[in-house]
Design brief:
By secondary structure, the chain is mostly beta strands. It is 2% helix and 40% strand. The protein has 1 helix and 21 strands. The model has no long low-confidence stretch (mean pLDDT 92).
Length: 315
């Protein structure tokens, strides 16, 4: 006997593609990709982002062809993480026995895992279509680093369809206050440095490390035609733009990072760096580095500090 009313079929929701995370066979790097094609790769040495590609396969970061990726030296290119000191340390400071730019970029970090998307603290975030990779470093992991403080760092790299975010949480897990500086030493890839300009710094004063001394605001976008090494003090709410041939290529927004370093070594300095290549590679890079390096950040025992940047591709 047939039933007059058959039960309706239960609809099955389609399985949507999700972000994928891969760990290399030798456990030295972690990569992630989105269903839309974007990809990021992070070396556990220094937790250094060494590649970030858009959906069309275009690479957004410059990586020296001579960069050391075996953990023997800091990586030349990508996004090295500077902590707890920027530049050569002063011998009369607690960081005085550390190497230039500190130990974060030369230490092996722990991969903590992939976490679900969260609302970003940075403006105009891409939202849910993203994957976040977390990495950790603590005082117990750095060996004889000659910095007598207890700390825990959590570094997050978030890949979204149009942007990449890097953020750092610094926790003072000891009983003594300490000072630190931090900077994301980002090497952006460009086609022709002679056609590049950096905007958003027109009203910012800066320290010129090539010519020496302090300089007043330039009142116009920075064009690159020779070696440049400048430390700008710019309000974090001011976006920084990198344009090429008059068209926007990147936009950098920041949280708790009041300084921007703009650097290109140009011809002679490039030749003097053994790990920089190709020799004319300076034509294809511009460093726009968000950080807090103009003064010391003091972190009291038990407290935490967080800051980050978001780099958006405009073309």
């Amino acid at each position: 006997m047939e039933r007059s009313k058959k039960p309706s079929a239960i609809p099955v929701s389609p399985v949507l593609p999700t972000p994928q995370v891969f760990i290399s066979d030798n456990n030295d790097r972690v990569s992630a990709s989105l269903p839309t094609g974007e990809r990021v790769e992070v070396l556990l040495h220094g937790a250094t982002v060494i590649s970030w590609t858009s959906a069309n396969g275009k690479e957004n970061l410059f990586l020296s062809s001579k960069a050391h990726l075996d953990g023997s030296k800091p990586v030349r290119g990508g996004i090295p993480l500077v902590f707890p000191v920027f530049g050569p340390p002063s011998k009369d400071h607690a960081t005085g026995n550390l190497p230039q730019h500190g130990f974060a970029r030369t230490s092996r970090w722990e991969y903590l895992g992939k976490t679900s998307s969260e609302s970003s603290t940075l403006p105009n975030s891409s939202g849910d279509s993203s994957v976040k990779l977390d990495f950790g470093l603590s005082d117990t992991m750095i060996g004889d680093a000659k910095w007598p403080y207890q700390f825990a760092l959590t570094y997050s790299v978030t890949l979204s369809p149009k942007d990449l975010e890097t953020s750092l949480v610094v926790r003072n897990t000891g009983t003594s206050n300490y000072d630190f500086q931090v900077l994301f030493h980002t090497y952006l890839k460009v086609d022709d440095i002679s056609a590049v300009s950096v905007g958003g710094l027109e009203n910012a004063s800066f320290k010129d490390k090539v010519k020496g001394g302090e300089a007043a605001a330039a009142k116009e976008p920075l064009a690159i035609s020779s070696e440049v090494d400048r430390v700008y003090n710019a309000p974090p709410d001011q976006p920084i733009t990198v344009s090429e041939q008059g068209s926007g290529r990147f936009e950098v927004t920041r949280d708790m990072l009041a300084d921007i370093v703009v650097w290109n070594p140009w011809i002679e300095k490039s030749k003097g760096m053994a790990d920089f290549g190709p020799e004319d590679g300076y034509k294809n890079m511009i460093c726009v580095e968000a950080g807090s390096v103009g003064a010391w950040n003091t972190l009291e025992a038990g407290d935490a500090w967080e800051g980050g940047q978001r780099i958006k591709t405009l073309s």
